[in-house]
Specification:
globular; 5% strand; mainly alpha
Length: 240
């Protein structure tokens, strides 16, 4: 899951807080600031992104137009989201891309029994793993099929992206692909965390991914000098 920074509440032309009477009013700001990607599964979506209310607007009507309650969400994540009431306080029960460095919370193995399936990162403590698992369950991020037995679109897109990235990795190692070409493909496909993991041994590519405008990464605050992801909440009980 790609970490994001939504920024402060957007202002209108008069310098007052923008009004979000309809979620579409927030979508433009979110896309401009974080790219046209689902904030949960990382899939690139050009036309069908919606605005997720982290705390459901039916249960929390006062937050229905609140900037801090918005994320971008794709149709599969939206339709698969658990109908159970969100555990509160939600910051303490789940990992969120606008709050945590989610590169440290989730992991997608390329081989083995859970190949290409989103998992809790193996480096997490038991309590952290519980939060990561709860987030995965909340949006069914680990599903490979739908309730009708069809392949989950997110899983299919993830598979295809991994295949493309591995091909580019081989080409790059043989000097048949440039970092710029790899980043162009990554931007068009999404799944930022997969590209970061697959090219982790190639600093030139990782730097280019971090500097790519559509991915909107805070390189100095969220990554070390060695380009390893850093916790965003230093000094807290759970620093991630």
């Amino acid at each position: 899951m790609r970490p994001i920074d939504k920024g402060t509440w957007p202002l209108n032309k008069k310098g007052a807080k923008a009004c979000f009477n309809h979620w579409r009013n927030a979508k433009q700001y979110l896309e401009e600031r974080t790219g046209c990607y689902c904030h949960l599964c990382e899939m690139r979506v050009n036309n069908a992104l919606a605005v997720e209310h982290i705390k459901p607007k039916d249960s929390y009507p006062r937050l229905s137009a609140c900037w801090t309650n918005f994320l971008l969400i794709c149709t599969p994540c939206n339709s698969r989201k658990s109908k159970s009431l969100l555990a509160v306080p939600y910051r303490h029960h789940y990992y969120w891309p606008h709050i945590n460095n989610t590169l440290l919370a989730f992991h997608t193995p390329l081989a083995g029994d859970n190949a290409m399936v989103v998992n809790a990162h193996p480096s997490l403590s038991p309590s952290q793993k519980q939060k990561a698992d709860a987030t995965i369950k909340l949006y069914a991020l680990d599903k490979t099929t739908t309730v009708t037995g069809d392949s989950d679109r997110r899983y299919l897109e993830r598979q295809l992206t991994i295949s493309m990235a591995l091909e580019r990795l081989e080409e790059y190692a043989d000097n048949r692909a440039t970092a710029a070409a790899i980043v162009d493909l990554a931007v068009s496909r999404g799944f930022f965390s997969l590209w970061m993991a697959i090219f982790s041994d190639y600093r030139e590519v990782v730097e280019a991914l971090l500097d790519a405008r559509p991915f909107c990464q805070n390189r100095t605050a969220w990554f070390s000098a060695a380009l390893a992801p850093l916790p965003r909440n230093q000094g807290q009980a759970d620093p991630l």
